[in-house]
Write a structure and sequence with these properties.
Number of strands: 10
CATH class of the domain at 47-157: Alpha Beta
Strand content: 25-35%
Oligomer: single chain
Structural class: mainly beta
Radius of gyration: 15 Å
CATH architecture of the domain at 47-157: Roll
Number of helices: 1
Largest sheet: 6 strands, antiparallel
Order of helices and strands: EEEEEEEEHEE
Distance between the termini: 40 Å
Length: about 160
């Protein structure tokens, strides 16, 4: 199964398409038991300028709010290359905890885009450069790159004491 999100050139923050064959729709696998597949279309229209946050699979339980701890597994893909640059599924890291949500030491697109996720959900995040790494390259991520993440939510809860 795939889910499409039209992320190209739209003035709205969220735009979805039930038709995954749309020429400008990112396609994401829905099977939570395996690493998500992400297909970025050949789209001539420029990517978003705002964070797009879309549930591919809706989880259950309380929605994550600022200050919570959100444990996730993720895959990251560069918009321009359509290639994976990182995945907790691959690097032996397993799950990764974002805490406290809203002020965590992650890119701002994650702090914004993970608000509202629920345990057991899969969320697509499309993050513009200014809420990612900006003008600085970061390893395999080019400067001014739009980032695509698919995030599987393992848990949502109160942050652990440091």
């Amino acid at each position: 199964m795939v889910f499409g999100v039209a992320a190209c050139g739209s003035s709205s923050e969220k735009s979805t398409s039930a038709d995954a064959t749309t020429s400008c729709a990112i396609q994401v696998g829905k099977d939570l038991s395996v690493k998500p597949t992400i297909t970025v279309p050949d789209c001539a229209i420029k990517p978003t300028t705002k964070v797009i946050s879309q549930d591919i699979v809706t989880g259950t339980g309380p929605a994550a709010k600022d200050g919570d701890a959100v444990s996730v597994k993720y895959v990251g893909v560069s918009w321009s290359t359509k290639k994976q640059f990182d995945a907790s599924w691959d690097n032996g890291q397993g799950q990764f905890t974002v805490q406290p949500l809203g002020k965590a030491q992650v890119i701002q697109g994650w702090n914004q885009g993970l608000v509202g996720v629920q345990k057991g959900g899969r969320r697509l995040l499309i993050i513009p450069p200014d809420l990612g790494y900006g003008a600085q390259a970061n390893g395999p991520i080019a400067a001014n790159e739009t980032l695509i993440f698919v995030v599987d939510v393992v848990s949502v809860g109160a942050p652990s004491a440091s």
